[in-house]
Design brief:
The protein has nine helices and eight strands. By secondary structure, it is α/β, with parallel strands linked by helices.
Length: about 220
């Protein structure tokens, strides 16, 4: 039986949400690009908050405003630069140690995250993680499109994909790590669920649901 240790990424392995920071890097400090990004995310965010939009819609609005139409070569180089900075100063201090502990125990380490594959692929390569469940970008003829190629790997969709992977591996979810209440179902499903530097909502729910709490900044 395959034993799987699954990690969320944003604010679990990393100190901050990768999507927003990558978008800011992609504006290249250009004022008009940042204004366009702020406007797009603001309108989409209002639609989401009032029930007329989705989280995917918010992400795709940002994608359209500063990334769509750029070449794969350009964006992969930008992602490599972003990930190099992450590896230097953007990971929680204990994240690598915990990942390596699971590898040493002979368990398969997996990331399951709403973050995009453009960032997750080079990050996982650097961390020695082969299995990735994430949000896929859409490309045509080497140019980024204005939509995602698959579902946003968040909340119920993330849980669906993790459950499917466990079933395909005929495996066991021995550990799941996350900072966010949206992953409570997976934290409860795992043999050991760990709330890593949790959001206030997850911290409140952790004790009642048998979820451990750890500080990976120490």
């Amino acid at each position: 039986m395959t034993k799987l240790a699954v990690f969320d990424v944003d604010k679990t392995i990393t100190l901050f949400p990768t999507w927003r920071q990558f978008l800011l890097l992609a504006t290249d400090e250009r004022r008009h690009r940042r204004m366009r990004l702020a406007g797009a995310m603001g309108l989409a965010g209002i639609a989401y908050a009032t029930g007329r939009g989705t989280r995917t819609g918010v992400k795709e609005a940002a994608l359209r405003s500063v990334l769509a139409g750029r070449t794969r070569e350009d964006l992969e180089a930008l992602a490599e630069r972003f990930v190099n900075d992450l590896l230097e100063s953007g990971l929680r201090p204990n994240a690598r140690r915990v990942i390596e502990q699971h590898k040493a125990a002979g368990e398969e380490v997996v990331v399951a995250t709403a973050a995009v594959d453009l960032i997750i692929d080079p990050l996982c390569e650097a961390l020695g993680i082969e299995t990735k469940l994430c949000t896929p970008m859409a490309w045509e003829d080497g140019v980024l499109q204005d939509r995602f190629a698959g579902p946003n790997c968040y909340a119920e969709e993330k849980e669906r994909q993790v459950r499917k992977l466990v079933e395909e591996r005929d495996g066991e979810l021995v550990a799941f790590y996350s900072d966010h209440i949206s992953d409570l179902g997976l934290l409860k499903l795992a043999r050991r669920g760990v709330a890593v530097n949790p959001s206030p909502a997850l911290l409140a729910a952790a004790e009642a649901n048998g979820v451990d709490v750890e500080d990976w900044n120490q």
